[in-house]
Amino acid sequence: MRAMARITVVLAALSLAGSVGIRAAAAPENISAVSAILIEAQTGTVLYEKNPDERRAMASTTKIMTALLTIEAGDPDREFTVDPLAIRVEGTSMGLREGDRVSRRDLLYGILLPSGNDAANAAAVSVSGSIPAFVQLMNSRAQELGLYDTHFVTPSGLDADGHYTTARDLAKLTAFAMRDELFRSVVSCSSADVEFGNPPYKRTLYNSNKMLRRYDGAIGVKTGFTDNARRCLVSAAERDGVTLIAVTLNAGDDWNDHTKMLDYGFASVKSCPLDVGCGFRVAVAGTGQSVGVYAHNASMALLDGQRGKLTRRVLLPPFVYGTVEKGDRLGELEFLLDGEVVLECPLYADSTVTVPEQQPGIFREILARLGVYI
Fold it and tell me: Mean pLDDT of all residues in the chain?
């Protein structure tokens, strides 16, 4: 099955099934952090902010980017011998020694659980060949992700001139990273058994993120502390289909800050089922038939005032040519909030339509004139 150019259909304001009334919650008070933000992860809606665009040191929350790039480099189970110079670094450690062999997967646990600076540097050299080259990659990726108030100097987050981010950028980065299954799995672990050394042997690493143990629904993500940055924390929690991300930079009481922010968020946002029916059909060229489309059920976390602002847009081809199998992806159903796409649902064929092997000559000629050959 091949598709021709798409047509776009914008539908009227979306009607939501089972809308839930949400009582306004009191905003969190006495947040100790100098800079803070709370967002809903799916839409990026800001629920609370305090100096969110102030550039500040980020300490080991830097390792969110380091881990993301390590994952994106692929080959997580390939073992290698760590660079002896890279692992000679101050601060927290996963316990790497000269000559140790380790996999990138186990380095991820070392980076994200005990916040190993040795693990961050070892991963950097493994991915890019050197720490400076990896830092360049970090900054390039930051630009690609729209983190325009972020600049990296080290893979570990140790204090360095020009190493900074904002609470808003860090929340955006975390929302992106949490979409990755491996990243999400690692940061949700309170502890993990890994194997490395020379020869490798098993040992247990423990997560420094106390939110995993003290907050119901916590699923990550990263702690941080340096003399310059002070206490930094990124947390994520999930309840009833709603995922929230909280960030604090330079916080005197970060665990309580995050508890108050997340409690406020869950009192303010509810998951609402979406209307994914569209009733459209797509013509199958050369058959005189058409095929219907469907999307899987979906939901979205919304504030009470957002439900009336949500619209949807159907992206479908005017026709397809070639046999269509049931379940083939034919287009997308997009949900938009304030004109921005916040969710995409694939549209699938609801039945099979078979095109005869031999097409009439005139039909072939018409397609050939259109530059289409079958």
Answer: 91
The answer to whether the beta carbons of residues 245 and 234 sit under 8 Å apart is yes
Q: Please name each of the domains of the chain with its CATH number.
A: 2-18+274-369 (2.60.410.10), 35-268 (3.40.710.10)
Report how far residue 87's alpha carbon sits from residue 85's, in angstroms, rounded to the nearest whole number: 6
Pairwise CA distance, residues 292 & 88, whole Å: 61
Q: Mean per-residue pLDDT for 151-156? A: 99
Instruction: Select the more confidently predicted residue: 5 or 35.
Output: 35
pTM for the whole structure: 0.83
Residue 268 bears catalytic tag: no
Long-range contacts of 3-6 (CB under 8 A, 24+ apart): 3/317, 3/320, 3/330, 4/317, 4/318, 4/319, 4/320, 4/321, 4/372, 5/317, 5/318, 6/315, 6/316, 6/317, 6/318, 6/331
Tens of pLDDT, residues 257-295: 999 999 999 999 999 999 998 889 999 998 889 999 999
Pair of tokens at residue 358: 């031999």
115 noted as active-site residue: yes
User: Which of 35, 60, 103, 128 does the annotation list as catalytic?
Assistant: 60
Q: How far apart are CA 142 and CA 59, in angstroms?
A: 16
Question: Of these residues, 63, 172, 260, 270, which one is catalytic?
Answer: 63
For the residues 87-115, what does the mean pLDDT come to?
97
